Amino acid sequence: MPHSPETLAFWQRFLDSLPAGAPRPQTFQSWAFGHDADVASRLAALVRKGVKTATSGLLWSYEAEQEDTPEVGGYSVITDWEGRPLCIIQTLEVIVRPFHEVGADIAWEEGEGDRSLEYWREVHWEFFAEECAQLGRAPQDDMPVVSERFRLVFDQSPDI
Fold this sequence. Notes:
Blueprint: H1 5-17, E1 29-31, H2 37-48, E2 54-58, H3 59-64, E3 75-79, E4 85-98, H4 104-110, H5 117-135, E5 144-154
Parallel strand pairs: 1-3
Antiparallel strand pairs: 2-5, 3-4, 4-5
């Protein structure tokens, strides 16, 4: 899907902010967290505060939507639910593993709730079960999860 003019302008502001001679990334993804406006805003705010430095998605969803999984070094413009750009992250690490093998480190870095593995598993099981239902699949303890560690590289949008 093509990027909105607002997202392209935001990306250009990021490029313009880079020091002279720094590499200029040519491509990026843009997306919002979650399945609704409240979750998208809440999680983007955690990124912008430096609390959320990781996220996880269901590999089956990437495959069903024919979307590329994140790539180390890649950039993403994080948007609100309406597609307005909020900040830019750069992917540092991507790990694909079964749901039951996602560890406490990722739970903490995702920055949600009390940041415990128990909380992460409860919330993500519910989230992934909803995605599985849309895909016509049953959630499984060994369903493949894509965990992405990232760093915030640009945040010059107005507060939400």
